[in-house]
Amino acid sequence: MGGTFDPIHFAHLFIAQTALDRLELNKIIFIPTGKPPHKQERLITDSYNRIDMLNLATKSNPKFEISSIEINREKTSYTIDTIKELQLYYGKDTDIYFITGTDAFIDIESWKEYKELLSIAKFIVMTRQVLNSELLDEKIELFIKEYGANITKIEIPTLDISSTDIRRRIREGNSIKYLLPESVEKYILKNRLYID
Ligand SMILES: Nc1ncnc2c1ncn2[C@@H]1O[C@H](COP(=O)(O)OP(=O)(O)OP(=O)(O)O)[C@@H](O)[C@H]1O
Ligand SMILES: O=C(O)c1ccc[n+]([C@@H]2O[C@H](COP(=O)([O-])O)[C@@H](O)[C@H]2O)c1
């Protein structure tokens, strides 16, 4: 599961656990982006802080792992490069799924080499609000027909949590309690993240 995770919050953890359960996966790998292709207009928090928060949030779940493969890449993080690297590492007999929310997936045609990506990677797409669900379904159908894509859409209860909202709350001096794990909340306060 790729993401900026700036910071990780309960919706991320919930969709990861839902994917794990529904598809009976062996594990979830959280892959924080190094230089995200679609978020270059804003300054992303240092990768070591985002990794620290991921560690705190996932440490109680033995099926959750974190990978630094995108962080360690000098260049922009593209999902196609990540999938190819993972496929090489785990071998052909391992099924690898890329987990994403519908808000990210609906723009996949703007991703690097998206046609090839859709043909080599399996996707798990989690519903998220702010979405034209008819358009999404049309796209999924087209991708399956045109590129032989393997896409599993999972309907989840709407979770109105985002990293953007959490950062805004901190800037405005509001509480972020119950939107993310307490250990992550404490880490953010201690390290004075997102204050300006
Ligand atoms: N509330 C949510 N419901 C469903 N999917 C989510 C939710 N929050 C994040 N995701 C998905 O998790 C992945 C990683 O998300 P990301 O790290 O960009 O978090 P975000 O909350 O969307 O961040 P930001 O607000 O900074 O854009 C993306 O595929 C995104 O669609
Ligand atoms: O590969 C691409 O071109 C590409 C473009 C946009 C987003 N992604 C990936 O999609 C995931 C979710 O992105 P985001 O911006 O919602 O955090 C994250 O792993 C990004 O690297 C990938």
From TrEMBL:
GO terms for molecular function: nicotinate-nucleotide adenylyltransferase activity. Catalyzes the reversible adenylation of nicotinate mononucleotide (NaMN) to nicotinic acid adenine dinucleotide (NaAD). It comes from Alkaliphilus flagellatus. Pathway: Cofactor biosynthesis; NAD(+) biosynthesis; deamido-NAD(+) from nicotinate D-ribonucleotide: step 1/1. It is an enzyme of class 2 (transferase). InterPro entries: Cyt_trans-like, NadD/NMNAT. Keywords: ATP-binding, NAD, Nucleotide-binding, Nucleotidyltransferase, Pyridine nucleotide biosynthesis, Transferase. It comes from the Bacteria. This is Probable nicotinate-nucleotide adenylyltransferase. It catalyses: nicotinate beta-D-ribonucleotide + ATP + H(+) = deamido-NAD(+) + diphosphate. Residues 1-169 form the Cytidyltransferase-like domain. Its EC number is 2.7.7.18. Belongs to the NadD family.
